[in-house]
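Methods — Computational structure assignment.
A single polypeptide chain was analysed. Its primary sequence is given first, followed by the predicted tertiary structure written as structure tokens.
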Amino acid sequence: MANNNQEADFLKLCAKQVDEGDRGNKEAYAARRYFYNLFGSGFKRGRFDDPINAGLNYGYALIRSLIRKELAAHGFEMSIGIHHESSENPFNLSDDIIEAYRPFVDAHVYEFIFQKDIFSLGLEEKKKILQIFFEKCVIDGKVCSIVDAIKITTTSLVTCLEGKSASHLKLPNFVEVGK
């Protein structure tokens, strides 16, 4: 496998090649490479009961629930998404927004499950994952918690719709220097 910078560049290239409907399946290919690099060659993403997948699923569920709460508070119809368009998914819009927050969950699970060789996801591990809400990120030039960042993202989505421009959308980034 290539070094980290080369792999990051490759994944960025894959992201640019995802077209409408992802007919070339670039997103799935990039996801496999991403998880391979993060959790090792033996890892397979899915709804399996291993602690890494269970941790990712649990963390995503926590973040998704907070996003849904914020969208509901702003009166959004959550079944109408931007990129997620399944008629069977009543939460397409929250699934669009969560994409920007998934890397924070991934990093949290990497640190508290993968690096510690945890073999099952019990109460203590879930408590660690729950701390994702207090993880720091940078959004709109400020350092804040994931909870506050989700509020900022949702409020900025309202501004986008009112102004008919995606340029107002505010998304989180990692804090560059430590926690």
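Note: The longest helix spans residues 51-73.
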